[in-house]
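Q: Could you write out the predicted structure for this multi-component system? I'm mainly interested in how the pieces pack against one another.
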Amino acid sequence: MRTDLALEALGGAGQVPGVRVEEERGDGYAVTRVAVLDQEAAGRLGKPPGRYVTIEAPGFRTRDRGLQERISNALARELAAMLPSEASASFFVVGLGNWNATPDALGPEVVHRLLVTRHLKDYVPPDLRNGLRSVAALAPGVLGLTGIETGDIIRGIVQQIRPDMVIAVDALAARNVDRIMTTIQIADTGIHPGSGVGNHRAAVTQETLGIPVVAIGVPTVVHAQTIAYDTLDALARTLQDRSELFRALGQMPEQEKRRLIGEVLAPAVGDLMVTPKEIDVFVEEMATVVAGGLNAALHPGIDDVDLSPIFA
Amino acid sequence: MRTDLALEALGGAGQVPGVRVEEERGDGYAVTRVAVLDQEAAGRLGKPPGRYVTIEAPGFRTRDRGLQERISNALARELAAMLPSEASASFFVVGLGNWNATPDALGPEVVHRLLVTRHLKDYVPPDLRNGLRSVAALAPGVLGLTGIETGDIIRGIVQQIRPDMVIAVDALAARNVDRIMTTIQIADTGIHPGSGVGNHRAAVTQETLGIPVVAIGVPTVVHAQTIAYDTLDALARTLQDRSELFRALGQMPEQEKRRLIGEVLAPAVGDLMVTPKEIDVFVEEMATVVAGGLNAALHPGIDDVDLSPIFA
Amino acid sequence: MRTDLALEALGGAGQVPGVRVEEERGDGYAVTRVAVLDQEAAGRLGKPPGRYVTIEAPGFRTRDRGLQERISNALARELAAMLPSEASASFFVVGLGNWNATPDALGPEVVHRLLVTRHLKDYVPPDLRNGLRSVAALAPGVLGLTGIETGDIIRGIVQQIRPDMVIAVDALAARNVDRIMTTIQIADTGIHPGSGVGNHRAAVTQETLGIPVVAIGVPTVVHAQTIAYDTLDALARTLQDRSELFRALGQMPEQEKRRLIGEVLAPAVGDLMVTPKEIDVFVEEMATVVAGGLNAALHPGIDDVDLSPIFA
Amino acid sequence: MRTDLALEALGGAGQVPGVRVEEERGDGYAVTRVAVLDQEAAGRLGKPPGRYVTIEAPGFRTRDRGLQERISNALARELAAMLPSEASASFFVVGLGNWNATPDALGPEVVHRLLVTRHLKDYVPPDLRNGLRSVAALAPGVLGLTGIETGDIIRGIVQQIRPDMVIAVDALAARNVDRIMTTIQIADTGIHPGSGVGNHRAAVTQETLGIPVVAIGVPTVVHAQTIAYDTLDALARTLQDRSELFRALGQMPEQEKRRLIGEVLAPAVGDLMVTPKEIDVFVEEMATVVAGGLNAALHPGIDDVDLSPIFA
């Protein structure tokens, strides 16, 4: 089963050749930096070579405001390490996803909270401009709404405004339910086809755009198949522990498992998503956290006091 | 596992004492009228005595406009049989649920599309008033938003405006994924605690309000536990067919199944819901269908031509 | 021309018998406390006897976050003087107006940001409950949406939940364009028919509900007639000064006309649509300020740190 | 005073050299086709040479559904005369304006209701494709939201997807209050800087994009200055007639002032906030009418029955 998270792709596998893992603990959260160093490791994980930083905060859903600000700050720090440091650098932030479908609306909601400045550069006096870098932003919608591949919209605009970097924000599908709304992933590898909650997205990468692309993703759903699959796995584990008779379940062929799951979920046409009942509140709060981290990383010259509005 | 649908509670059980079942087929949909006739049958089904009408349209999600209008008409006919027929009858329609959470927003969305007339009675000339009955409507929100039990809000307003009947519209949780957005249930028994997508609702019934309550419900979600539970059942069926070794799974104690499912879903705090990715579009279209049926049943004197606006 | 603001009704009239006026300056805002002491004064002003507190902050529209917090704190202080001080006091906040019409949506937007607690009282441990008073809240909509007089909805709910006080939040129509989104009025006299942006509202007062009603209002519009009226007044003033010269008004130079219009519209900076073009942003920000002040006044035991989330 | 409407620029001027005017009456509406034939006429009107079609329906605000459908059909016919007729023609519809500010949200609301097909071309079977032309659509937001000139976004996308024509939908500012939400203008001249409710828009024309641009505009506001200006004009007209009597304008009776104001505001029935209080409902309904006309003109091969969904 595929996952948008490098950390899940890595699994509990311990040391993997061609992959460097670095961990750090904060107050209520953990940061894991995974570097996929070569093509072989990339093939094994199903993730292109590059840096993947994951911020995990199991307590995010408790709606603890202090924790949310700490996560936002951690995000700002990790982003700063991936973004160019020049005061003259210019950015184009793209909020991917469908604003009409709550679990897919994270990207547009982040864009809504960004400090957009590209058009102000000419009006803002130089002494205030200190720390204010050029930021443009757009939520381009999804193919079903526009009839245009998101990648084409982004490429067209990039060719007009020539930013130094694209930052793409997207809602992801996770492998495990406990990742929903508790994890933020940053990657310097861009967005690859098939990621995100909407699954037919075109690539948004340095290859397709000609400039670096940093991707920020937050899992908001798990595919319903995952629940069925995990149930089988949990059963197999239980049975292996306690019974000769059921040993074989652990060896049940993949194909057979898929058939079973199909039997459970087939009657419902289309993609079934598992998402918390309170998803709307979580998306709003996570968008605030991500936008806060982004604003701080994009405008490093603006101090804490001035940043406070962002949390409103 | 509990379900909000009488038809699911009945299962494939064939004839049940104290329950009368009547079926009718339409073009693209089926109507089933279940009458729970006595307390014994009610206890067995977990549904109070009364009439439960279910309209099933597996093709609803194909977004076929013609089918949607036929379902709307069928709903109008079935409602007409439960509503008082007097031209002087007055109604209070309550849209239950949380407008901020898409799968729970059906009730508020229906209220938004209703032909509300109670305040017009004094202004509309008598010849136009023909067929226009008195309709008031409110979406009272949920306990977490108002701090007030929904039942208390409704009772308070009923005592002020003294309608002849309350009609409560609500999003339901189904037992099977194929019921999501394909089924409408009408019941003359009102709303009972624990129904709906939000699960702490107070009773809205003739007992609590002193006037008849008709409930209209549409399943918009399935609880995630259901997926896990169904996976185990499907596995048990498969294994029983083909293997001596796995016979015992069919006899796995209920308690053990629950423990397993807990293992899969526990890490995610709170209620996980399974819902289609396109839920926003479905809720909008289903609200149009339900409001269309309601408007026609509430104002039987208004002919087709005048009703067309309702579909906008 | 009528106005919802006592301060405008008072005009620049200096001392008026039966009216006590008290002024106080803050950083970026001014507080004026008007007490209408007897029926005679009430008749003269068209405002029932009672206390009217006005907070004026001409800079509100500059979107200065610091100023907004100071206004919110000032509002909390002024409200505290009107609200009961008992820890056991219970409140019902009503957000009047139509959420579909931006300039009329202030009340519903404030309710959306309130710390609603009435339903938590049973769950919150006593030591945390310290300072958390019972607050219920509802945005009942308008007559055209529900078919029910707003006053009836409120009265019905008050009879069910028996709060000690109703607080009604409403958008107002001002007399002068420079009051739009720069003024907050608090009154202990409740809401009287004909106030607000929607003009057919029923009374929400101690007389109709049996408990005290505090009204919080913010002007969001000016009636278009006002603009024309003001134009004539300005013209008349000009002509009285120099009436010989301008006898033939038909020959008044274009330039002079523009100057005149400037005199009428100058106090309101920018593009005035009579409701400002940016009304949506202003309503959002003003709702945050009002909800912040209300939350602080309703829950005086909660300190600043805990209140910060309210600004999100 | 400038206006976005060619018909208003023309005034009641009767025959103007270099301008051809053609009128046609429908049931409840009138169509006026103005052709600006040369640069001299263009300079006189402040409108570039081209075709300007205006549909006027004073009764639009009565919310008569039948009238709305007739207007939608008239719009479809007039558009058909400006659009290429080839079945292979491809279109890019741009909804200009700010979705957060109701009177400026018309463009985005129209885009939301469009039959977008560009991405379906590969999946739809050829026999169904009959009449389904390639349509892409985007609401790019405004400079303050994105930091990018709208013209740059459009040009970038046009260069990627190479449509045969751009159709830009925009909310306009009218000169007279009675035009608000009663008039639709179609022009084959594109969008010129300074038009629209937001007034700093870049040009979207054949010159800037290299392909034809049709603009559809609907007045949703009048500038507040207009009201004051009109008041003076009305006053001046009155005085010229009877200047002896009213020499001392300062003594003009109250009653007379009211009559004057009535003369200014009478054409717009009801409470004018200069944008009407019910602007939200009008924008929704006008967006439905415009999208209906657009969908019919863009997909001429789809018959009436299939078009009905568009009105939902």
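A: Regarding packing and overall arrangement: Chain D touches chain A at residues 116-120, 134-138, 140-141, 143-149, 152-153, 155-161 (CB under 8 Å).
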